[in-house]
C-alpha cells in the first residue's frame, strides 16, 4: 500500500505553497514551515521577500531545517509502507506501534500550530476575552507551549491588546475594555517570566503601563495577577522595571491593599512588590514613609500570624528605619516597639535577627526617650537580655550587647525594671 492511496497525509505535513507532502521541511523567519524546493523557488526564482502564507516581510531569507517535522513525516511514510505492514501482526501492542509513537510529537506540533493561529487572530477578533481565555488554557502548566508562546511573539501580542484596551477605557469607552486588560494579565501571569527575553518584552511600555494600571485600579484577581507579574520580573533580576512607574502611586496602591482586609495571597504578594519597590527605587523608602507605610506595617505586624509575612514586614521596617523619617514614624506609633518585640524568640530565628536590627536603629543610631521607655514597658529589654543567654549569630549578639550597654543606665531608673535584670546590667557595665 502506498502512502496517500488509502490515507490522506495530515494537513500539517503539506507544503503551504505546493500542497504536497514535504520532503525537506524548512522554517522561515515568520515561523511558517515550507518544503525547501518550493520556498527556494519563491525566494530565488520569483525574487519575493515575503512569507507566502502570511505575506509578512521576512526578517531574513535564512531557512532553518525542521528536523522534528521531517522525522514525523518519515515515520508516517514508514507506517504505510509494505514492509512495515507485512512485519506488523494483530497481536502487536498498540503501545509500541508507530501510530502511538507519532501521537505525542504530532499532537504537540498541532497544538503549537493552533496556538500560533490563536495569537494571529487575537488582535482582530471582537471576542477578545474568550480568545485570551483560549490562549491561557493552551499554555497554563505546559512549559513547551509557554516557550512556543514567547517564541511566537505572544507577550508582544498580549501587550498590544492590553495597551489598546487601556486606551479605549481611558477614552471613555465601555468598561468591558478594562475586562480585556484584566484577562490579558491572566495570560502573562501563568508564564515563568524568568528568562531575559520574556522579561524584556514585559518591560516594554505597552505592557508595563497596563500592568501598573491593573495594580492601581483592577479588581482583586487582576491586582493579584499584576503583582505576580511584577514579582517574577523582579526576581528575575529586572532592576529597571521601577524606573518607568510612579513610585508614589504604586506604594499608595500597595498600602491600600495591605490596609484592607483581603485574601491572604493578595496581601502577601503586596508585601513582595513593596519590598521590591523599596529595594530598587532610590526614593522608595522616603516615599513609603511619607504615605504612611510604617503605620500600616506596624499594624500588620501586631496581628501577623504567618511566619513569612512577619519576616517580610520586619525586613521592610528595617529598611524604612534606615532613614530619619522612618525612625520618627516608628517612634510616633504607640504599638511599634511592642509589635517588634513580640516577634523576638517567638516567630523564627530570622525574625529575631530582624527585630534586633530594627530596635538597634531606633535605640542606638537615633534613640528617642519614648522608644527607650517603650522597650522597658513592653518587655523588649528583657528579651534582649534573654538573647544573651542563647546561641545567636555574632552580629546579632554584638548589637544586643551594645544596645544594653548604651541604654542600660536609662532603663535601670524604671521601678518596673526587674531587680535581677538590674544586677545583670551591672555585670555588663
Give a verbal description of the structure.
The protein has 429 residues and is mainly alpha-helical. It folds into three domains: 11-65, 2-Layer Sandwich (Herpes Virus-1); 107-244, Alpha Horseshoe (Leucine-rich Repeat Variant), CATH 1.25.10; 246-374, Leucine-rich Repeat Variant (Alpha Horseshoe). It is built from 23 helices and three strands. Strands 2-1-3 form a three-stranded antiparallel β-sheet. Strand 1 (25-27) and strand 2 (33-35) form a beta hairpin. Residues 1-6 and 83-103 have low confidence and may be disordered. Pathway: Protein modification; protein ubiquitination. Residues 81-99 have a biased composition (Low complexity). This is U-box domain-containing protein.
Major beta sheet, specifics? 3 strands, antiparallel
- Class by helix and strand content? mainly alpha
Give the ordered list of helices and strands. Answer: EEHEHHHHHHHHHHHHHHHHHHHHHH
Shape: elongated
**CATH third-tier fold name of the largest domain:** Leucine-rich Repeat Variant
What is the CATH class designation of the largest domain?
Mainly Alpha
CATH architecture of the largest domain: Alpha Horseshoe
With strands numbered from the N-terminus, the spatial order across the biggest sheet is 2-1-3
Total domain units = 3
Oligomer: single chain
Q: Tally of extended strands?
A: 3
Taking Cα atoms only, what radius of gyration do you get, to the nearest Å?
A: 31 Å
Distance between the termini: 100 Å
- Beta-strand content estimate: under 5%
- Binned, the helix content reads 55-70%
Amino acid at each position: 500500500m502506498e502512502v496517500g492511496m488509502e490515507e490522506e497525509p495530515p494537513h500539517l505535513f503539506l507544503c503551504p505553497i505546493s500542497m504536497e507532502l514535504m520532503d525537506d521541511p524548512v522554517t522561515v523567519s515568520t515561523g511558517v514551515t515550507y518544503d525547501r524546493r518550493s520556498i527556494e523557488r519563491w525566494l530565488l526564482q520569483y525574487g519575493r521577500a515575503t512569507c507566502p502564507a502570511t505575506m509578512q516581510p521576512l526578517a531574513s531569507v535564512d531557512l532553518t531545517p525542521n528536523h522534528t517535522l521531517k522525522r514525523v513525516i518519515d515515520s508516517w511514510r514508514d507506517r504505510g509502507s509494505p514492509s512495515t505492514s507485512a512485519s506488523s501482526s494483530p497481536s502487536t501492542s498498540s503501545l509500541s506501534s508507530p501510530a502511538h509513537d507519532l501521537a505525542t510529537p504530532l499532537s504537540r506540533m498541532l497544538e503549537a500550530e493552533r496556538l500560533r493561529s490563536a495569537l494571529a487572530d487575537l488582535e482582530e477578533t471582537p471576542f477578545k476575552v474568550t480568545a485570551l481565555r483560549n490562549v491561557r488554557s493552551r499554555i497554563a502548566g505546559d512549559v513547551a507551549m509557554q516557550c512556543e508562546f514567547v517564541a511566537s511573539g505572544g507577550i508582544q501580542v498580549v501587550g498590544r491588546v492590553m495597551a489598546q484596551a487601556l486606551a479605549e477605557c481611558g477614552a471613555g469607552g465601555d468598561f468591558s475594555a478594562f475586562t480585556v486588560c484584566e484577562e490579558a494579565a491572566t495570560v502573562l501571569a501563568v508564564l515563568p517570566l524568568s528568562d531575559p527575553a520574556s522579561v524584556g518584552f514585559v518591560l516594554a511600555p505597552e505592557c508595563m503601563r497596563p500592568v501598573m494600571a491593573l495594580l492601581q485600579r483592577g479588581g482583586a484577581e487582576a491586582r493579584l495577577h499584576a503583582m505576580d507579574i511584577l514579582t517574577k520580573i523582579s526576581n528575575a533580576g529586572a532592576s529597571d522595571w521601577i524606573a518607568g512607574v510612579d513610585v508614589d502611586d504604586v506604594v499608595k496602591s500597595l498600602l491600600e491593599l495591605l490596609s484592607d482586609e483581603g485574601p491572604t495571597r493578595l496581601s502577601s504578594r503586596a508585601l513582595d512588590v513593596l519590598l521590591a519597590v523599596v529595594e530598587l527605587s532610590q526614593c522608595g523608602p522616603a516615599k513609603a514613609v511619607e504615605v504612611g507605610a510604617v503605620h500600616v506595617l506596624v499594624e500588620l505586624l501586631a496581628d501577623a500570624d504567618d511566619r513569612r509575612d512577619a519576616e517580610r514586614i520586619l525586613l521592610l521596617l528595617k529598611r524604612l528605619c534606615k532613614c530619619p523619617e522612618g525612625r520618627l514614624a516608628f517612634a510616633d506609633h504607640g504599638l511599634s516597639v511592642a509589635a517588634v518585640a513580640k516577634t523576638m524568640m517567638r516567630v523564627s530565628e530570622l525574625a529575631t535577627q530582624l527585630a534586633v536590627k530594627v530596635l538597634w536603629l531606633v535605640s542606638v543610631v537615633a534613640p528617642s526617650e519614648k522608644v527607650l521607655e517603650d522597650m522597658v514597658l513592653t518587655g523588649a529589654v528583657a528579651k534582649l537580655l534573654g538573647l544573651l543567654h542563647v546561641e545567636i549569630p555574632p552580629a546579632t549578639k554584638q548589637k544586643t550587647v551594645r544596645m544594653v550597654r548604651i541604654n542600660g543606665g536609662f532603663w535601670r531608673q524604671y521601678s518596673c525594671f526587674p531587680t535581677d535584670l538590674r544586677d545583670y546590667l551591672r555585670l555588663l557595665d
